[in-house]
Amino acid sequence: MTVSTDLLFSREERAKFQEKLIKQWKLPLIVIKANMPGKHKYDPFSLYAVTIIAQEVLSIIPSVHVLRQHTAEGCIVFVVCPQESLSLKRKMLDIEENHSLGRIIDIDVLNEKGDLLSRRDFGYSIRSCYLCDRPAYQCSRNQTHPVEDIESHIHSRILDHVQSSLKYQITFALLAEVSAHPKFGLVTPFGSGIHKDMNIDTFIDSIMVISGEIAKANELIFHDWTSYFDALRAIGKVAEKKMFDSTNGINTHKGAIFTLLMVIGGWQLSRTLGMLTEKIQELAVSLIRDFEDIHRKSELTEGEMQYLASGNKGVRGLALSGFSPHLMDALEFYRMVDADINEKMVRTLLFLMSRLDDTTVIKRMGEGGLKWLKEQSKIILKKDIDFWVDFDYQCHQRNCSAGGSADMLSAVILLDLLEKKEREFL
Hints:
Blueprint: H1 3-25, E1 29-34, H2 44-60, E2 65-71, E3 74-80, H3 85-98, E4 105-110, H4 136-142, H5 147-162, H6 166-179, H7 200-214, H8 225-247, H9 254-270, H10 273-284, H11 288-292, H12 302-310, H13 314-320, H14 326-336, H15 341-353, H16 359-381, H17 388-397, H18 403-424
Antiparallel strand pairs: 1-3, 1-4, 2-3
Helix pairs in contact: 2-6, 6-7, 6-18, 7-8, 8-9, 9-10, 9-18, 14-15, 14-18, 15-16, 15-18
């Protein structure tokens, strides 16, 4: 299929799915989707906006059934609601009109007969263009504005929301990572990779409960390195519990929680890229205790067993080095890639996969498998994106999933946001 036929097929399938839900539940249906131009509608920006608005919707209405679809149209959230449809539409219009992301989202309400309720029936005018005062449908039909200008405007509005708090920065970074595709055995919007027990919805559910917990690192006051590290670790344990509760025991983000907390902790104490590595190193000194006490532990993690077998300290070893040089090199690489955000992320992931001694890869593939992955990632990184699909297939065949590299990609995206926000205040 072409991109255009993919979109048409997705819209037709969505219409059938909406009809099926209404027939099954005999209740009003809310449909939340991004109002994005162009043919490529699934990206971190649309996923973030839909996810945030869906969370807002679910905070003010009762629901009996919530589902997500991930297609060429983007992420679409369906909410079956046991509430009168006219009242629902008024509430959704209030979000569209007053939430800072409301203009970017369409929140449709269909009554129990399947009829779509119109804005104009409630006294609201049709939506105006993003860039001028004319009706949006006229500018869209006449192609009045370059798609690139509209996308830039939308991305800027979404980033304003993202940069309003550390919680939202973390949310965006984690959603961005999981939205990247293809991802060489890892979970994407369009497949579970090699994983049988998780998909993108598992990740989104986890992200929406752990982001706020991780952001509590922003509230800590530094007294000494040991107590500061212990406070970060306590935050991490709470975040892990919330993750496991939301995913029914599936580990989606344990490594990411640790990595992001170490990066945030180091950033809070440095506020500059030049000092970040040193601050993370000082913060991570407490991790030495983990390796000194390892022989006294009755139960070992996979990473600890690998350490005893090979001396590879895994993500804790990376933290002890201040994630040097991988974090800063990957950030520089990420910023250097002149492409759309999906290509930036996938290329940065390949960059990390070509360099990291990823313990999640060693667990599945052994040292030989890690060597193969690093060599192949380096080769694919230099090639055109047309080679990505075949490499993704090879990773599936070899049971490869570079979770540690994905965690580091999240950290790169977060650090990019943190540093850009800091520069705004200088």
